[in-house]
Amino acid sequence: MRISAILVCLSIALVHAQNLTVQVDGRTVGVESKLNFKAGNGITQSCTDSEGRIDCAPSFNSALISTHDTVHANENFCSSYNGTSAYTCRLRYKTLTGYSTGMTFLLVVDAPCNTSCSLNIDNQGLVTIKMIDGTTDPRGTLIPGQPQWIFYDGDVFRLMGVVSTRDGRGDLVARRLIGSMDTMNYAPAITLDVTLGDMHKITTVNGLGNATINATTGGLAGQHMWIIIANDPASSKMITFGTNLKSSGALTGTAGKSATIQFISDGTAWYEVARTTNL
Fold it and tell me: Which residue range is the domain that position 218 belongs to?
């Protein structure tokens, strides 16, 4: 009888010894014989039996919780893929559930924005893209393959890539502005890409005949453009001006001499301002 009583007491003691009191912030949430780790929203649990103890290690779902390196790499990278100025893109790691004021994205487009354009991220709807003032259309600012930072102001996306200093009248103040030089190949029909800078140069080729220059667009209102035409030493060429270019007539060169012609845009076409020959 005494041995049986001792065994019963030991069994009761073992049962009570297996109970576990669990507290959170000092407050008891339960007393049970088992403790279960459940995965939370973005948090996962991994436990293993390590001979005498159970080792548990929490981790996170990177599709929901981004690391510092992920965020700084390309969490907000947006690359359009539909080939139109109604741009469409998807975020790489997590689908966007809605636009919020203050959101910023690094946008790369696959088609030029010659006039107005818009952007749809993760099928959240098309939002108009404007210049940094929130009202002016980009009109040539967005170029395929060139990344631009955009900012959502609650109504439109604003381009942040151009930072300017302006005086009290709104005029741009700068010490120096140097345009890039676009060198075009000579051919009977020459396409002048107005997004490649405001200075364009052509050197004629003796074995080819006269040529016609066609501009890709009518440019931006107020934009200036210069074309340098260098005639080869053996021949003189007559250059005519076609699509989107309004000139006072063809420009006939002199062998071994150069000429310049200047245009200004009203937003729909380029108008000749001046020309100089026999340079």
Answer: 181-276
